[in-house]
Amino acid sequence: MTILLLQRKKANYMQKVCMAVNWRTGRRAAYALFCVLALLTVAACAPKTHKADSSPTSQAAEQAARENKLEKAVELYEQALKENPDSGLINYHLGYTYGLMGNKAKEVELYQKAVDLGYEDGTLYYNLGMAYGERGDLDKAEAVFKKALERDANNADAHFGLAIIYESSQRTAEAEKAYLEAIRSDAKHLDAYIRLSLLYEQDQQHDKAKATLQKLLQIEPAYPPALQLQQVLEKSGDKTKAE
Questions:
Q1: Rounded to the nearest 5 degrees, what angle is found at the Cα of 169, between the Cα atoms of 17 and 104?
Q2: What's residue 24's pLDDT?
Q3: Residues 6+ apart with CB under 8 A from 216
Q4: What span, in angstroms and rounded, lies between the C-alpha atoms of 193 and 230?
Q5: Which burial class, exposed, middle or buried, applies to 25 when counting CB atoms under 10 A from its CB (0-12, 13-18, 19+)?
Q6: H or E element, residue 135
Q7: Average pLDDT of the chain to the nearest whole number
Q8: DSSP state for residue 84 in the 8-state scheme
Q9: Count of other CB atoms within 10 angstroms of residue 237
Q10: What would the pLDDT profile of 174-188 be if each residue is shown by its tens digit?
């Protein structure tokens, strides 16, 4: 049975949505591991402000978004787009805001329009991949993450997103490699450590799971998902010894 849990943290706004997580076919994950994943948020990349997007209308839209006045932000970004219809960046920002409001169709549509207009930004490809994944279109999500890595082979978030797609498709070896690439690209990518440790634990590689978690705890000793996972792994180890 495949259980999909989609979870994402929107940078600046902290609004959670869901990201695909695969549980090994034919094996139910322990409830405790599920609880660890429930704590885990995956950082999305908020669009950056550029000089090309410094019109008064765009600035007002960004301010409204920061204040979580999303409907007002959409209204202002739509106005900014009328003023500058060929702006890939404004399309990107508008799509991002629609995503915060839960309108995934508009989010994907506007991200793709930004790409078609020639806007090049690693966070755009990452968020587009995330949006496709949330809609269950894993093939398109995979293609977008790979496109992001063509632009920047050290994009840790793109490696991380690709790993989740692989895990969702039961491509465990590829998922492991992609999580390791995310950590290689960003040694402090906390969620990559967590997900890799979970992957090892679900695959009955208990020693690797514990070793990966210990590396994370050395970086961030108080990270809540890590502390909960530590308890789960300790109980798992005790149960294994007892058997």
A1: 30
A2: 28
A3: 190, 193, 194, 197, 223, 226
A4: 12
A5: exposed
A6: none
A7: 79
A8: S
A9: 14
A10: 999 999 999 999 999
47: left (phi over 0), alpha (psi -120 to 50) or beta: beta
Question: Using alpha carbons only, how large is the chain's radius of gyration in Å?
Answer: 19
Tokens of 96: 């991002």
Distance (Å, whole) CA 123 – CA 1: 33
DSSP code for 54: -
Give the residue among 230, 168, 179 at the shortest CA–CA distance from 201.
Answer: 230
Poorest-pLDDT segment among 3-7, 87-91, 100-104, 180-184: 3-7
What is the arithmetic mean of pLDDT over 149-169?
A: 93
Distance CA 243, CA 209 (A): 19
Contact 178, 168 (CB under 8 A): no
Residue written as token pair 């410094």: 54
* CA atoms of 233 and 213, how far apart (whole Å): 9
Buried b / exposed e over 117-150, threshold 16 CB at 10 Å, is eebebbbbbbbbbbbbbbeeebebbbebbeebbe
Q: Are 22 and 5 in contact (CB under 8 A)?
A: no
Q: Which two tokens stand for residue 197?
A: 């440790």
Helix (H, G, I), strand (E, B) or coil at 146: helix
